[in-house]
Amino acid sequence: MKxxxxxxxxxxxxxxxxxxxxxxxxxxxxxxxxxxxxNRSNDxxxxxxxxxxxxxxxxxxxxxxxxxxxxxxxVMASQSNPVTYTIKTTSAPYHNQYQGLSTYNSKTAxxxxxxxxxxxxxKVGGGNLILKKGTYIITNTLYIPSKVTLLLQDGVTIQxxxxxxTTKLTATKTLFQFIAPSKxxxxxxxxxxxxxxxxxxxxxxxxxxxxxxxxxxxxxxxxHNTSVNIEGxxxxxxxxGSFIKLAASKNINIRDNYFLEAKASSSGSREAIAxxxxxxxxxxxxxxxxxxxxxxxxxxxIENNEFRKLERAVGTGKYTEGKYQQNIKLLxxxxxxxxxxxxxxxxxxxxxxxGNHFADITNQEGNLKVLLISGVKYPTITGNVFRDSDxxxxxxxxxxxxxxxxxxxxxNTIDDGNKADxxxxxxxxxxxxxxxxxxxxxxxxxxxxxxxxSDQSVRSFTINPSSEPFQNTFKNYSTYNSSSKQYYVxxxxxxxxxKVGGGxxxxxxxxxxxxxxxxxxxxxxxxxKDGAIIRKSEATGTTALDSSSSLFQLAxxxxxxxxxxxxxxxxEHDIQFLGEGKxxxxxxxVSGAxxxxxxxxxxxxxxxxxxxxxxxxxxxxxxxxKSVVVEKNTxxxxxxxxxxIKEAINIDTPDRSTEGLHVDWTSYDCTPxxxxxxRNNNFKxxxxxxxxxxxxxxxxxxxxxxLNNIIENTDSxxxxxxxxxxPTITGNxISNVNSGMGxxxxxxxxxxxxxxxxxxxxxxxxxxxxxxxxxNTGPGSxxxxxxxxxxxxxxxxxxxxxxxxxxxxxxRVNQIYGIYDSNTLKYYYHFQ
Length: 832
Known about the structure:
- The protein is mainly beta.
- Among the domains are: 1-75; 549-828, Pectate Lyase C-like (3 Solenoid).
- The chain contains 6 helices and 65 strands.
- Helix 1 packs antiparallel against helix 2.
């Protein structure tokens, strides 16, 4: 049954009241019947139809009364057909109750209106109260009993009023308390979870509860309740209280609401939703009807809400020793722009925070915590997004101050699974990208762990010369400065890519000054856009950081300091250095500098890059690696080294005795290179293009292919082979080897086994090809002389090259080590 209440339809004038201001079936029935009988007997002129109409009207009014009156014989609402009342701002209280009170006036009218219907719903065992569009000013607390749904239609505003219009009635500090009206004045009337249940407060559209910045006022108080829903409401303008305070309650759902705007309170940390425990010692939940029995909240779900411009969104202010709020869930909420820590977890056990988005949780000091956690047990905090804030999560012991301070310090219990879950949150544009875990009460520097957080789903990054380090990593290092910044920027992203298992780092156009070694792990692509320049720098800006001789080493950052950590071909793999246009790696003529060091690697591609300005090092150091492709690059420019034979690409073995390589992470196991392709590159103005200058006894680089390259203007031999097995050198153009002077060769080979060297063009070179035995001098000299294994077929292939302005028109084959005139064979080219 649904009633539309309006003053014009008020039937109170037709019924009487007893001395207690309550309506009774007996008195009211007598008045109705008596009046009808008298009228019927005295009105002699009235006909039977007129009398009959009086009877019908009286019976109708009696039926309305029997259904709607708070009489001794009550009409109870059933669950299948609950009583529903719909009111508007101009409605009168139920049966005009309270209108005769001295405290009833225009300022308290809405308070008494809602109060009368909530009391009526308690009497009939529950039901629905629907508020039509309009603003309801409520000065005093409204009590909501069990099985009541309060529906605020679109356009309804319930606003907290502070002016009662009379000195006889003082405004209270709450709007709603979820306690039966009949119990609200009884001390300790409810305990455990035995309070009101089955209450729903629901809003439609723009339905609003406005605290109107009334100081220390709370919108809704729940205590000892079960099965409560609060949904679809916009809560606004808090000032020192809370929008919702709940304690000792179970199975509470707060979803699809907005919590907006708060003035600064004296504490600066009042929660929009406060989760407390009724405890006489902490005094965090003190209402007359609530027994301070230390019952905890259990099963609180706060879901799909938005919190903005508050002090705190959700939290607990005091804990009770040995008591833990259970099963608190914060799911898929948006929380932004809080002036204090967004969430304060204090003595919660098995809580869940998932799918929430946090933003702009920051202060001038840069120390606000999005989640401040103390006394937690086995939390699940995962899948949240933290953006533009100071600290994502800080975990620490805590102790109550003032009331409740007699309780012992509360500590945290977090297992490895909880930690792993926390590391699966996403941090974007944060000041800190780690979780702080303080283990000692009131100690925030020592005994502190930092758990780095990385987003495993993001595997592609683009940076420019002004970029900051990934997640601000390294910015707190004493060695971080303007000279070292770009080194730390690239390092931060490469370390992040290792953590996520690989990805792409794209460098936009501009110059990146790199003072120290960058380590590259498996499955990483470094992409240099047109105009991107990586330049070797010696300036670190501090004496605490030495510059290195190499730019990149293909070892995982996490393993780069493990001595002997790699062997064979078991190192990092599937790495690419790719460039477009004028992408450049510039060694900047730094003495001994090396661009890329490959050792124990596999499946490596280096393509499309201009390598420039070498002095005494190599552009690429290639050791103990297999399946390497170096193509479509340019290697150009050098200053003379001490030896005069430094290769742009050095083919070598990791051998401690030869001293050709110095990195911590190799096992120095003398593994040779295997299946290397160097094709379609340009080499110019170098000492050597490609070659080996030390060998490891009995070790042979196998299947080195040098194809279709242009090599011009080398100071020494263009290609130097030492201990290569079955190499292929075809389609290359080699010109101006030492300007055609001296005895330098286009190809010089020692310890070669069955090479294929054909279809090349050698121009302006003193000697096209020379084969001779060789022996290391100095480091590595303990190895035996290495000899060539070349047959007639191999030599026939070598004679199929093109010679242009060469000093010798034959292949020179020396047979004895150190003898270059006698015991020398000459295989002449035949010209047509």
